[in-house]
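Quick log. Single chain, no ligands specified.
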Amino acid sequence: MPSSSESIGCNRFRLPSCSVAVAACSLVPALFGQALPQDTVDRLKAGIGNRIETATILGGDYSAVGGTYAFRGGNRSDLSVGKLGGGGELGLHPLGQTGMTWAPVLQGNIGVGSAENHFENTALAGNALKYDTVALEFGGGVSFHLTDHFSIAPTISGIYGHMESSFEANNPAGNLVKLLATGTLVDWAVDTWTVVPAIKLKYNWNWQRTIFELSSYYNYFHTESFNSSSVLVNVNGDSHTWENRLDVDVPTGLHLFGRELHTGGFFSRTELFGGISDGLSEDHFYTLNSRFVMDFLGELWKVRWLGLGASYFWGDNFSGWSMGVDLRLQF
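-> predicted structure:
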């Protein structure tokens, strides 16, 4: 009975205006009075929104998708993130005399990103609010193989996130923001922690040598800040993602350097709830992936295959794509 890991890859992506739970309130009028227009304050707060929570999930969670996204709303925002991470099962062990097996699971990720929020059709037009993020994740769990085809894997992970904001002033309105809001609504830094309990169900079957795999993957994210340079920026939010996926692996019978070539890919729908849904202005999106890889099983450490993969993403308010290395391990 095969035991496979999740894909590992390096991704670069740009994302929509995302958000973060911010406790900002009664202090704003006291700090800015009438000098900074309330509309400008509201725009800056909306630019922060659920951004920290969402960016931590997208950059820090190894299962989050990567790519290049296009999104336009009241403001335009782009997020570019480089990621390296993955997870896998570490060998199978019998589960007593039940005929079932189990395996420990490890997963981890590191993501580094930058975002830029462009203000449009407002008094802040021509200025930009920028964010830099780094996030680290590590966790694990156990996978129970109840039959030769069906498994269930509960896991728990932790994510550390650090985000810094900087405001780029390019006109008098921007200069006023820079003067009055530095260290509060702009030009701040915040550290966060996130706990991520999750559960994944998989069912696979073969048709000749082609492998089909159905999976359902639910993640819950609770994020809080523990260190902030701004009295107005504090995070305490909850997000949920639920991905349902059909994956197909097709051996081609063709060989290169003595290794067989495979093709395939997956189609999935991901439901979004809580902060990440508010941050992306979406309650779901679709992913269509294709890959062309070389089979290295039994030849190169624990590598099952290595090649190229590409994905296209779309929802009601954004679309995008990604391309990069497709690497999967099998222990």
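The longest strand covers residues 236-256.
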